[in-house]
Every structure is written in C-alpha cells, then in structure tokens.
Amino acid sequence: MGVLDDKVAIVTGSARGIGRATAELLCEHGAKVVVNDLDKDVAEEASGQIQGETTVFAGDLTKEGVPDKLVQTAIDAWGKIDIIVNNAGYTLDAPLHKMSDDWWQRMLDIHVTAPFRIIRAAAPHLREPAKKEREEGREVFRKIVNVSSTSGTMGNAGQANYSAGKNAVVGLTKTLAKEWGQFKINVNAVAFGFIDTRLTQSKVEDNVMEIDGEKVQLGIPDQIRGMSQMLIPLGRSATPQEAAGGIFFLCSPWSNYVHGQVLNVTGGLFAGMTT
To answer: Which of 66, 99, 160, 237 could join 59 in a cystine, given CB atoms 3.0 to 4.6 angstroms apart?
Structure first.
C-alpha cells in the first residue's frame, strides 16, 4: 500500500530533472502520473522507464489551449485529478538593460501564465468533487504545488524576467490558497535554491533546449557555479531526487494542514532562509 494509492497527478516538465524525479517518487508511492514535456520522444522514454502507471502528454504549455488538453489527458486516462505539480520552466538570462521584450514575456508565459491556465482548466475536476464531499461531511484533500525559486523570493542579478515570474508564482499560490481552502485543496509552493539540473550545469555548447525551432542556451558560468557552493551551509547543490522530496511532502497526507506556504528547499542557502 502506498500513501498515494489511487491518486492521479499531473507533473509538468516531468521527462527530465526535478520533474522526472517527482514523477518517479509519486509513482513509487502509488500515484498515477501524467508525464509532460515539450519533446514527445523524451516524454515517452521517461514514461517507459518510470516504475508505475503513467501516460504521456507532449506539448508547449505556453500555447493557448494546450493546458486544457493536458488536463483532459488525465481525465481521459483516469477520470479525475488529485495532484497538480507546476514544474515546467527554463531560464533566459541577461541584465535588465539588455533584455528583450520577447525574453521577458517568455518567462512570464511559462512560469506564471501556464500554471494559471492549467489550474483554471483543472478547476471543475478539483472543485466539483470537493463540493459533493463537503455536503457529505467528508474531508478529501487535493494538492497543488507550484515551483518557485529563491531567484523569485529574493531576486537574482541577470534574471529580472525569471525572478519576476517566480515571484508571481508565490502570489498566485497564496491567492489560490485563500480561494480554494474551503474545498480542502492545499495550495503551496516550493522555492528551490541550487539544484543540479540542466539549468544550473555548466554553460557549454551542448547544454541547450529547442523551443519553436530556436535553440536556447542553458546553464550558468562555472565561476558562478563555484561561488554558489560556498553560500550553501550543506556544502553542495541538491540532487533532483532531493528536490523532489520537498514536492512530495506537499503532495502527501502529511501536508494536509500546510496551506498557502512557500517551502524553501535550499540546503540552508542564505537567500532561502529569510522568507
């Protein structure tokens, strides 16, 4: 028996990194998971490797109508939704005075608008069952976990667009917690520090992703990577599996009375100890 038996979860950006580790952990504890990525081949490969019941939805979540199709994938497969983890995202870094309107808008689209549209599309499948359960005098908790960052809660030079998007996630989370608490839908966020993923690995030629046919450079300079380790009391960055642990807690029954919060998962990084 798993603590998430019979639960249905959507995890965006779950073919790689933190999302993949989260999907694996949820499945390990009994959940059925929609695996999502821009790249269908990568999503299907991940789905095939994850031990548990999964289905795949590939698509660009920033495009109109795509979040609705993502939600419908879960409904078509299993008839309900219990958990949503809004994890998909990437970075486009530049100092503010050199940042284009396009790079600014892209970060808001993927980090704020996509989660908003996904949650809105899922609203009937979360709220209506809850209304019935309330009438019957039963408490059934459902979970929404939005992924933020210490860049959002504390700011980060070179990431005005990303930081603005990730801070907006916090506002979205806290507002929705006030609106949907009555339905026993726990809405929380995680703010990650330095996690070892494609976004924080070395900024080298082959560390890229493709969006709308355009190659986007990922990673950060090695000098900054080295300095960041010195700011973490635990002395190292986190693995995706360690990051997924924070998300899992907020998806689990042990978080039923945790609501409208931002959980810092930072290894004690100073920027993640003051919010």
So the answer is: 66
- In residues, how long is the chain? 275
Report yes or no on 216 lying in a domain. Answer: no
Question: In total, how many domains does the chain have?
Answer: 1
Beta-strand relationship, 83-86 and 32-37 = unpaired
The whole-angstrom separation of Cα 24 and Cα 21 is 5
Spatial CB neighbours of 242, under 8 Å, sequence gap ≥ 6 = 195, 265
Q: Each residue of 155-185: pLDDT tens digit?
A: 988 999 999 999 999 999 999 999 999 999 9
The structure's pTM equals 0.90
Q: What does the pLDDT look like over 202-228, one tens digit per residue?
A: 444 554 556 666 665 455 555 565 566
Query: Residue 252 belongs to a domain with what CATH number?
Result: 3.40.50.720
Q: In three state form, how does the secondary structure of 36-78 look?
A: EECCHHHHHHHHHHCCCCEEEEECCCCCCCHHHHHHHHHHHHH
Write the CB contacts of 46 (distance below 8 Å, at least 6 apart in sequence): 14, 15, 16, 20, 23, 35, 37
Told to judge if 162 belongs to the known catalytic residues of this protein, a careful annotator would answer: yes
Catalytic residue among 141, 162, 183, 194: 162
pLDDT tens digits, one per residue of 12-50: 999 999 999 999 999 999 999 999 999 999 999 999 999
